[in-house]
Design brief:
Length: about 80
């Protein structure tokens, strides 16, 4: 559906547009101030449980016994996107 923006000077003009919208097939949305729109957006909390008590020692020895270098890791991760 195409959209247009209409600027008006007072609330009476907005009410007149809303009355017209009843007879014609269009929708009138009331403007929302940027401050109000930002304050209404609530981000839901994600159920991240592993970060509650991080234990970095669980990663100790992850590369033990493997013949791999830092450059090999970078190349596998980034390919030809970076210069080593």
């Amino acid at each position: 559906m195409p959209e247009i923006t209409i600027k008006y000077k007072n609330e009476k003009a907005l009410h007149a547009l809303q009355d017209l919208s009843r007879y014609f097939d269009f929708v009138v949305k009331k403007p929302v101030s940027a401050k109000k729109a930002h304050s209404e957006k609530k981000v839901p909390l994600l159920p991240i449980t592993f970060a509650a008590d991080p234990d970095v020692t669980a990663l100790a020895g992850i590369w033990k016994g493997r013949n791999i270098s830092l450059n090999d890791l970078r190349k596998n991760a980034w390919g030809n996107r970076i210069l080593v």
